[in-house]
Amino acid sequence: MTGFSQHRRVATVAVVVTDYDEAISWYVGKLGFVLTEDVDLGGGKRWVTVAPANGQGARLLLAEAADAVQESRIGNQTGGRVFLFLETDDFGRDHALMLEKGVEFREAPRVEPYGTVAVFADLHGNLWDLIEPKR
């Protein structure tokens, strides 16, 4: 060990969005996340977090773009690579539900050595994997 606590974890990941309320609606309505915080910070800024309903995994901080540089990153925060990975215990159930709710999948489901997976896009075009890991 290097002196760091053994009880650390990645807790929150920022996603740059165009509008707080639109992003809340998408993540809650399309992915079934829950709104965990919505705090007015003044000056039009808010601390808005959403997370999977089961409380597992990292939260997303929905960060409304504050300037042109941040706006330029919306929808392409990782240069076109998959950005986030949404794990499920039942790929078929969640894939069907997400399709029903209008989530845009960029490919058909496929089986890989690490699990069943398909790439989808969030409301701004960031790429995600829906994945059921091999157990």
What would you report as the Rg, rounded to the nearest angstrom? 16 Å
The total count of helices amounts to 3
Look at the structure and give the mean pLDDT: 95
Low-confidence stretches: none
- What is the end-to-end distance? 29 Å
Which geometry do the CA atoms define? globular
% residues in beta strands: 35-45%
Structural category is: alpha+beta
Order of SSEs, N→C?
Answer: EHEEEHEHEEEE
Strand elements, count: 9
Sheet with the most strands, sense and barrel status: 5 strands, mixed
Helix percent reads 10-25%
Task: Tell me the layout of helices and strands.
Layout lengths: L11 E6 L2 H12 L2 E9 L2 E7 L7 E6 L3 H4 L10 E6 L3 H10 L3 E2 L4 E3 L2 E7 L5 E7 L2
Parallel strand pairs: 1-4, 5-9
Antiparallel strand pairs: 2-3, 3-4, 6-8, 7-8, 8-9
3D architecture notes:
This protein has helices spanning 20-31, 68-71, 91-100; strands at 12-17, 34-42, 45-51, 59-64, 82-87, 104-105, 110-112, 115-121, 127-133. The protein is α+β, with helices and mostly antiparallel strands and 135 residues long. Strands 5, 6, 7, 8 and 9 form a five-stranded mixed sheet that branches. The model has no long low-confidence stretch (mean pLDDT 95).
